């Protein structure tokens, strides 16, 4: 697996709850290490690295500059899938949908994860 140029690491309230959510919608979590104070988990989508989740308290200890930040983000992440309609039909009953739209002929489906991060689903394409 090739490492991405930028790897998002999301601060979450409960790492296992986030892993359970993402696995439910088609991601795979790599095993955690043996240190209970370091519960960072890498998540794959298909065979590709997608993101990491890390308990917010542990992330604040690791990077004190984040000490007063709350989980969630102003912005969004996009998830490119091979079969937009099929994937959206599969996850629709499992997520909190926030918006569906078509922009420049491309279908978009937005939902939030348990910590309020917004994810937009799009059809995979070549640039």
Q: Report the CATH superfamily.
A: 2,3-Dihydroxybiphenyl 1,2-Dioxygenase, domain 1
Head-to-tail CA distance between termini: 21 Å
- Please report the first level of CATH classification, the CATH class: Alpha Beta
Label the CATH architecture. Answer: Roll
Major beta sheet, specifics?
4 strands, mixed
Using the CA coordinates, give the radius of gyration. 15 Å
Strand content: 35-45%
Helical residue percent band: 10-25%
Task: Reconstruct the topology from this structure.
Blueprint: E1 9-12, H1 15-24, E2 27-29, E3 41-45, E4 48-55, H2 56-62, E5 77-81, H3 84-91, E6 96-103, E7 106-112, E8 118-123
Please summarize what this structure is.
By secondary structure, the chain is of the alpha/beta class.
Task: Give the tags.
four-stranded mixed β-sheet; 127 residues; globular; 2,3-Dihydroxybiphenyl 1,2-Dioxygenase, domain 1; VOC domain-containing protein; alpha/beta
